[in-house]
Amino acid sequence: MNFSEVFKHSNQLCRFSPDGKYLATCVQYRLVVRDVNTLQILHLYTCLDQIQQVEWSSDSLFILCAMFKRGLIQVWSLEQPDWHCKIDEGSAGLVASRWSPDGRHILNTTEFHLRVTVWSLCTKSVSYIKYPKACQQGIDFTKDGRYLALAERRDCKDYISIFVCNDWQLLRHFESETQDLAGIEWSPNGCVLAVWDTCLEYKVLLYSLDGRLLSTFSAYEWSLGVKSVMWSPSSQFLAIGSYDEKVRILNHVTWKKIIEFEHPATINNPKIVVYKEVEKRAVLGNDDLSFHHNLTMGSSLFSTQSKYEVSPAPVQVPVIKPDPERANPKIGIATMAFSSDNRYLATKNDNMPNDLWIWDMQKLKLFVVLEQAAPVRCFQWDPRRPRLAICTGNSKVYLWSPAGCVSVQVPVEGSFQVLSLNWHSSGESMVLLSKEQLCLCYMETPEGES
Amino acid sequence: MYSSYTSRATSPSMLYTPPLLHCSQPLSKNSYNILNAFCTEENVVQCISYINQEMSSLGIPIISNGSNGKTDLNLVSVLNTIYELLQLWRKSMRTMEDMENQQLKSNSDLDHLHSSHSKVKEQLELCKRENKALQERDRQLQLKTKSLHNCLKNEKEEVQKLQNIIASRATQYNHDMKRKEREYGKLKERLHQLLMDKKDKKLAIEVLNYVGRSDGKRSVWKTEKAEARNEGEMYKVLLSDYEHRQKDLMVENAELKKVLQQMKKEMVSILSPQKHGMKERIEDSLEQAVSDDEEDASEHGRENISLELSCEDAREQLTNSIRQQWRRLKNHMEKLDNQASLVQMGAQNEKDLISRDIHEEEIEKLKLEIQQCKDLITNQQQLWQQQLSCPFDDEAGALLRDCYLVEEKEKLKEEWRLFDDQRKNFERERRNFTEAAIRLGHERKEFEEDRATWLKHQFLNITPFVDRKKPHTAKSHSALSTGLDLEKQNLHTAPAQQNKVTRHTSLSTPKSSSSSSSLKMPCTADLYRTLCLIPDKSSPSTQPKRSSLQDTNIKLYSSQLSTPKPRLSITSDDSYICSITGDENRL
User: Fold this and answer.
1) Rounded to whole angstroms, how far apart are CA atoms A99 and A149?
2) What is the chain B residue with the closest CA to A152?
3) How do strand A30-35 and strand A388-391 relate by DSSP bridges?
4) If pLDDT is split at 50, 70 and 90, which confidence band does A52 have?
């Protein structure tokens, strides 16, 4: 594994372009676009204020920079560096901004979720969508970019509108059977829309593209319900993580539960491999050889060494007790991710912050548990291979693949605490972000594989 | 006399003056005080009369007869009286002692009773107190439960109230929420209106120049046509998705079908050879299987068609046949299981194991019998049916016939069982019979030989060359030594056989014994008797006969052999003859 030199960034704003050629980073009010391979600066754009959001258009030709404080958006072109576009939402304010899938329209959400403004870069035209619902995930485009689903709230009822992105025509508008809709998400094939209710009620609804209700799923009542929902890339499974520390998998034929993944505090099954990260302080002068080795490695003298050990069968998973008095208690499955080949599902239970659970979706069984020394901050699957990158806010990056797992020290002068990471679309490199710095990490491609 | 006594009594006191104190005690007891004495010189008569009176009142003969004041005391009577008095006194003393004892006992008893009484009283008191305490506690507990009940009721009411409150609050909250949301909506609307009305100058887009659409097309007017097109496209998307899914399912289905077909084929191939094997064994239970086989044959032809077909009946046919096969396989497996367990059991008691050939022979025999019986049964059934079909031809008749048949069947079963038992008995008897026959043959042979030797001896004795016999016996001795192996073989059985010879030969007449054919065919009655199968009625009649014969035998022996040694030589001679003839092995 190789690492690039370190670059500055701000607000964790660093994005690979969808075609994988460029890397956009924001430093205060400047937007820097680099070539991924050479890391040389290709373009440097200066915005009017500190950039708060950055997004590539789908064709990698434009970059959108949002400055919410000013209610302002600036769009830059890669092809024509002197082309520019500025969109001012004015007194309506701005809270969110995103590209439409065609890369020629920008959807801005105004303050108080008053409306969604759709700006066209082609015609300069503007159109409004009223009554957008302020919720966890209220807008979602299909993968193919043809349709937009939008959650709405009118007259104390939830509605869902489906628009055709091509001409922003309303295709379907229907009331959803939810108390207080919390989120919507299209299946990757763009034919089924998963809708889930507020956490007070466990309810997941599945609507067809034409607005028919396909199925309703509710696992239990009278307790905090759905916390997260995730489609598998094949649209075959719908994983629902909930506050009862379980993940339920629905199938795409009957929309019934196939299996329930529990996250027990004790892992008794000896077939499950539990990798436990063990930290060791490098003792100075303990061993001259290792000392020199450390020096040559360039790692900090005071950094801790760590490695994975396989724990024998009955493993006690560290559990933190959530405060029941607080709202949104730290319990339950909040983050889930399917590997790109549908083979594995990684989940994290919020009251077991150090553990990452990897489930085999072919056998529908728990496969591996990774127990980190520190709480898991971020994890992401390689977009090409079943390979998972994890960071825990220390100077290491952790990689898991079915073959095993490793921890890699980021060889950077000074402290580099990896807070988040992002895979390149090729799966050959990833960007590691600390609070103010970033560095690229290149995977060694095995021989025989391009 | 009293005086002399007193003088005697006093005289020691006078003699021993120094230890006066010691003597004074016994003296005072024994000595009579002159003044207080009952009888003095003067009142002897009165005393006597008084005593007489007293005596008579006590029922003791009086001391003196003298009534006229004369003092002629009859010494004997006095002594008797005294004696009696003493006796009386002793008796009374004893009774007194007894009484005293009794009293003491009763006193102690009384004391004991008193004490126990007091104890019981205390106990009673204690119990009463305890009872009181318990009652008090019970009362208190009851009070407590009452209060708790009240509490519970209150709590329940409270809960109810709280629930009501919660419900009302919830409705209130929902109502408020709705109101607020409405207000919020209104506000939003108003804000939106305001924003729109104000013609927000800032709200603007500044683009250097327009950008072409990514697909290169120009935007289109919003028309109904466009709408219809959108709808169409949507449905196209959905349709393609469904088609895709259907295709996947078809592929999956086809694969599963293929697997099923293969499974079926394999099942058939596994089951069919064993079925034939089984058919031979258990014919009656396979009627269904035979029909299944026929079905299979027809299904084989259709198999290829059903694979292509996806219509419901084809599928049903496939699944049905699979189910049938599966059922059969299951049955077969169960059977195998049973067999395995049986084999295990057989292995456990190897003693009872019968050799395979015998077993199979037996089975063959039994099968033959079964077949015969079956034929019989079917014949009978046919006959019955013929009989029964004439009077009844409606349903009731059929029903009746059925029940008749069932009855008959039961009867036949019963008979069959009986028959089987009998057969078994016969089998046993036959075995016994053959054994007995063998034994009899042996015995007869031995008897024959005995007779022959006897005759020979007789003959030798009759002949004038008596001296020649001795070397002959010596020779036989030498022959015995040479035929040692044979001797050894017979050694164990020899004495038993000898006994039997003496016993059983008596049953057969000398005539029959002489003929070799009768040797093989003894009459059954004899056999039964030998085997003790029939209680021997004729035993009293045969007993003397046998004994006589024995006697004669003994006589024969005794007359022939004066010493035991020559007799032994004879037995050895017997064996010698046996070895020469070698007949016994044949039997």
Assistant:
1) 14
2) B185
3) unpaired
4) very high
Helix (H) or strand (E) holding A250: strand A246-251
Q: B222–A167: do the CB atoms touch at under 8 Å?
A: yes
Rg (CA), chain A: 23
State the smallest CA–CA distance between residue B184 and chain A in angstroms.
10
Judge: B210–A112 Cβ closer than 8 Å, yes or no: no
Q: Which helix (H) or strand (E) holds A147?
A: strand A147-154
The DSSP H or E segment spanning A239 is strand A237-242
Contact of A347 with A242, CB cutoff 8 Å: no
Contact (CB<8Å) B177/A156: yes
Report which of A130, A133, A136, A177 is spatially closest to residue A152, judged by C-alpha positions: A133
Structure token digits, residue A129 = 């969508």
Provide the pLDDT for residue B217.
61
Mean pLDDT value across residues B378-396: 73
- Both ends of chain A: CA-CA distance in Å? 16
Q: What is the pLDDT of residue A218?
A: 93
Task: Report, as an integer, the average pLDDT of B502-515.
Answer: 42
* Maximum separation of any 2 CA atoms in chain B, in Å: 193
Residue A53 Cα distances to A22, A24, A432, B12, angstroms = 17, 11, 18, 156
Angle at B158 between CA B152 and CA B161, to 5 degrees: 145
Q: Are strands A62-67 and A53-56 parallel, antiparallel or unpaired?
A: antiparallel
Stronger pLDDT, B504 or A196, i.e. the higher one:
A196
Query: Which DSSP letter does residue B31 get?
Result: S
pLDDT over 80 at B158, yes or no: yes
A112 neighbourhood in chain B, CB within 8 Å: 188, 191
Question: Phi, psi at residue A167, to the nearest 5°?
Answer: -130, 15
Question: At residue B458, what is the residue type?
Answer: Q
Residue of B nearest to A189 (CA): B241
User: How much is the pTM?
Assistant: 0.59
Residue B213: its chain A contacts at CB < 8 A?
102, 104, 122
Model confidence pLDDT, tens digit, residues B116-130: 999 999 999 999 999
Partner-chain residue, chosen from A122, A130, A147, that has the shortest CB–CB distance to B192: A130
Taking CA–CA distances from A106, the nearest residue in chain B reads: B205
pLDDT tens string B287-305 = 444 444 444 444 444 444 4
Asked if the Cβ–Cβ distance from B207 to A103 is below 8 Å, we say: no
Residue keyed to tokens 């050879």: B273
CB of B199 less than 8 A from some CB of A? no
What band does A90 get if pLDDT is binned at 50, 70 and 90?
A: confident
* pLDDT over 60 at A294, yes or no: no
Least confident stretch, B107-111, B118-122, B463-467, B512-516: B512-516
A178/chain B closest Cα distance in angstroms: 15
Q: A408, A399 in Cβ contact below 8 A?
A: yes
With contacts defined as CB-CB under 8 Å, which chain A residues touch B204?
87-88, 90
A214, A258, A351, A375, A377 from A348: Cα distances, Å: 29, 20, 9, 10, 10
On the CB side of B386, how many CA atoms lie within 13 Å of its CA?
A: 6
Name the more confident of B469 and B325.
B325
Which of A167, A180, A186, A236 best probes binding to B when mutated, by most B CB atoms within 10 angstroms?
A: A167
How distant is the alpha carbon of residue B262 from its chain centre?
51
Q: Which residues contact B520 (CB under 8 A, 6 or more apart)?
A: B437, B441
Give dist(CA A339, CA A381) in Å, integer. 6
Confirm or reject contact between B230 and chain A (CB < 8 A): yes
Q: Which two tokens stand for residue B444?
A: 């007869």
Q: Give the model confidence (pLDDT) of A249-270 as tens digits.
A: 999 989 999 999 999 999 998 8
CA distance A255 to chain B (A): 14
CB contacts under 8 A, B 39-68 vs A, are none
Rg of chain B, C-alpha, whole Å: 66
